[in-house]
Amino acid sequence: MNHAGEHTIALRLEGTSADNRHVRLDDFLAQLRCLQDALDCIDQEANGRTTLYYRVVDLRHSSPATVTIEPVLREPYRKAGMKSRYRNSPTVVHHRFFDSLQAIRFRGVKIENTSEATVDAFVELIGGMGKSFDTGAIFNGSASVPLDAGLSENLEQLLKPGFVSKVSVIGELLSISFARSN
Questions:
Q1: How far apart are CA 128 and CA 86, in angstroms?
Q2: What is the C-alpha separation between 178 and 87, in angstroms, rounded?
Q3: Burial category of 79 from C-beta neighbours within 10 Å (exposed 0-12, middle 13-18, buried 19 and up)
Q4: Is the peptide bond before 71 cis (omega within 30 degrees of 0)?
Q5: Are residues 130 and 173 in contact, defined by beta-carbon separation less than 8 angstroms?
Q6: Over the stretch 134-150, which tens digit does the pLDDT of each residue have?
Q7: Global pTM?
């Protein structure tokens, strides 16, 4: 079954050779939780709150295991006044999620306003590589990001103290504060 939903997100995992390339249920559930945590962090960044939930629209066990989800606006945000403010949340979160992952994986930078919580969620998403699964990817109809050593290395680089991402900001500096630690 092919779900050509405009904002679908698919997670594909291939288990370890010890399990004949099948993914263990607890590992698969843990990866799904990590994916949801990362999406929730992006939603928080974009909207200041969690406006979306995700429903499964396709699930395949044949190795590699693949689940496809789509974002849905939560009921409280569908009300008349709120709907106009948050109606684009599925689009905004979907694009920001893929833009963030692709920037980190392919360019080694994070996009503007990416929170530490989001970077940490991405670290958790990649954390099972080589232990819980051998290969993995997150993809949609137009983008694919491998859950691989390249993503892991770039995330580690972003977490190093003193790392400066190559992103520019245009604006006026109004103040600057320095703190000294003991």
A1: 33
A2: 40
A3: exposed
A4: no
A5: no
A6: 999 999 989 999 999 99
A7: 0.82
Residues lower than pLDDT 50 in the chain: 1-3, 166-169
- Reference 99, options 38, 50, 30, 48; nearest CA is 38
Q: How far is it, in rounded angstroms, from Cα 90 to Cα 1? A: 22
Q: In one letter, which amino acid is 72?
A: V
Contacts 24+ apart (CB under 8 A), 50-55: 50/74, 51/77, 51/86, 51/89, 51/93, 52/89, 52/90, 52/93, 54/9
DSSP secondary structure, 82-143, as one string: HHHHHTTHHHHHHHHHHHHHHIIIIIS---TT--HHHHHHHHHHHTTBTTTBSEEEEE-SS-
